[in-house]
Amino acid sequence: MAAVGKILLGGTPRATSMSSRFSQRKAAVQMTPSAGKRLKELLDKRPDSLGIRLGVKKRGCSGLSYTLDYAKEKKITDEIIEEHGVKVYIDPQALMTVIGTQMDFVDDPLKSEFVFLNPNAKSACGCGESFKT
Fold first, then answer.
1. Which end of the chain is more exposed for a tag (fewer CB within 10 A), N or C?
2. What is the C-alpha separation between 56 and 69, in angstroms, rounded?
3. What angle do CA 117, 105, 34 make, to 5 degrees?
4. H/E stretch holding 118
5. One digit per residue, pLDDT tens: the chain, 133 residues?
6. 80-117 as b/e, with b when 16 or more CB fall inside 10 Å?
7. Backbone angles phi, psi at 94, to 5 degrees
8. In this structure, how many other beta carbons lie within 10 angstroms of the beta carbon of residue 35?
9. CB neighbours of 97 closer than 8 A, spacing ≥ 6?
10. Which residues have C-beta within 8 Å of that of residue 103, sequence separation ≥ 6?
């Protein structure tokens, strides 16, 4: 899948998720209903996938960009959020970079893409594909 979307600066996610049986805390990443719906559509075409894996790679003008891929297995170190019927497995190396991020899906006449509103991003490149924390 390897989808990448635009990065927006600022914002505060409001979702909470059950991280364990004993405590409740804010979700590391919040999905909007439109992002959840689109991810669910993609996952319905891939029944062998457990969910979506969210990561960050060093690339682009500003240094980092998001990666999305199908999660084939659960790793013991994964942070898992479940929202809108979709499980997102967050790579542990990306967790501190994406914590507090809101993931949205925008579908308009010119483009369809995932958009990330990351309060940790200090800057983003002009095209919106990469960011710096």
1. N
2. 11
3. 115
4. strand 112-118
5. 444 454 444 444 444 444 445 455 567 788 899 999 999 999 999 989 999 998 887 765 557 777 889 999 998 888 888 999 999 998 888 787 778 888 888 888 888 888 887 776 655 555 555 554 5
6. bbebeebbbbbbeebbebbbbbbbbbeeeeeeebbbbb
7. -95, -15
8. 25
9. 56, 64, 118, 120, 133
10. 29, 30, 31, 32, 35, 54, 88, 114, 115, 116, 117
pTM, two decimals, is 0.72
Q: How far apart are CA 3 and CA 86, in angstroms?
A: 16
Selection from 63, 95, 66 nearest residue 78 by Cα: 95
Tokens of 112: 């369809």
For 79, the token pair is 């942070």
Write down the residue that tokens 């893409």 correspond to.
113
